[in-house]
Specification:
Shape: globular
Structural class: alpha/beta
Order of helices and strands: HHEEEHHEHHEHHEHEHEHEHH
Bound molecules: ligand C2E, magnesium ion
Radius of gyration: 19 Å
Largest sheet: 8 strands, mixed, barrel
Length: about 290
């Protein structure tokens, strides 16, 4: 089937790049420079999440971007992996957190209120210094804990489930929202899911991209939504690219959608303008009403 074939092709291509030792070494060296340079090539983009319950945009996801002078645009899927393997991921994550807190303060001053979800790798979650560091920086910036949330992929969670559960529990106890990302691709067992201290489940976009055309994906997604309800988790669908898919998800009671149909990830000044145009409150609200069955 088409979506899976596309994914396999992409993965094969990615594997080629990743197995190219010299290329990866170059990525690593350039990344080290980018992290230490003040004129950073790195940036954080933001993608809106639309609530199908309220029709509002109150949350966004932070996605790192890197445009290197020699390598050009490097995919985060690749350089995040390189950073993980080289022991640099904590530095990358800290860079993202600082950038997000900076943008949150700017938005705060002009009256834009958003919760930003930051992607964490398993090495971040098991790093016991991360949580106190985040808490301290939020306090210094005068921002509440409802301003940040965190996402971790199902497959990363399953790399060290016991340790991850323990650390995530600390994040929850502090009051941060947590999401399992890319759900449906990571082989987690129901017993782990039951004990996972998370608030949100994000359905992997491979099930969503062609949802309107694929009966099998429709069955899978309805099953995941039912499962999420059992565990009282909010449901996010990522990779929503068209109206037909939005309609299906809305009919099945999906809570949030994210994807190119709403907007691609945007730079901080761009999203500022985008929100001013569409409004953080009741954007698309009337549209949502018309999508309801
Ligand atoms: P993710 O966290 O699952 O993020 C969703 C990805 O789907 C993003 O790709 C986003 O641009 C893309 N996307 C969103 N809507 C659509 C859509 O409608 N259609 C399609 N085809 N794609 C859509 P991106 O930005 O390339 O990031 C890829 C992955 O890299 C992320 O997947 C995440 O796992 C990782 N990543 C990105 N930024 C960070 C970061 O700051 N830290 C860490 N640890 N990982 C990150
Ligand atoms: Mg994510
Ligand atoms: Mg995802
Ligand atoms: Mg992903």
């Amino acid at each position: 089937d088409h979506a899976r074939r596309e994914k396999n092709l992409f993965q094969a291509y990615r594997q080629d790049l990743e197995e190219n030792y010299l290329y990866r070494l170059e990525v690593l060296n350039e990344l080290k420079q980018a992290l230490s340079s003040t004129q950073s090539e790195l940036a954080v983009f933001y993608q809106p999440k639309l609530s199908l319950n309220t029709g509002k945009i109150s949350k966004v996801e932070a996605l790192i971007r890197w445009n290197n002078k020699r390598l050009g645009f490097v995919s985060p899927e690749l350089f995040i992996l390189v950073a993980e393997q080289a022991g640099l991921i904590n530095q990358v994550t800290n860079w993202v957190i600082d950038r997000v807190i900076y943008d949150l303060r700017q938005w705060d001053q002009i009256g834009i209120s958003l919760q930003v979800a930051i992607n964490l790798s398993v090495h971040d979650v098991t790093n016991i210094d991360l949580l106190p560091g985040v808490v301290q920086r939020l306090k210094l910036a005068g921002l509440g804990k409802n301003k940040l949330a965190f996402e971790i992929t199902e497959s990363d969670l399953m790399k060290e489930p016991e340790k991850a559960i323990e650390q995530l529990q600390a994040f929850r106890t502090y009051g941060f929202n947590l999401a399992i990302d890319d759900f449906g691709t990571g082989y987690s067992s129901l017993s782990y899911l039951k004990n996972m201290p998370v608030t949100e489940l994000k359905i992997d976009k491979s099930f969503i991209l062609k949802l309107d055309q694929q009966l099998e994906d429709q069955n899978i997604v309805q099953t995941i939504i039912a499962l999420a309800r059992t565990f009282k988790l909010e449901i996010v669908a990522e990779g929503v690219e068209n109206e037909a898919t939005l309609r299906l998800l809305n009919a099945w009671g999906c809570d949030w959608i994210q994807g190119y149909f709403i907007s691609k990830p945007m730079a901080s000044d761009q999203i500022q303008r985008w929100l001013e145009e569409h409004g953080t409150t009741k954007w698309i609200r009337n549209d949502i009403e018309k999508y309801r069955y």
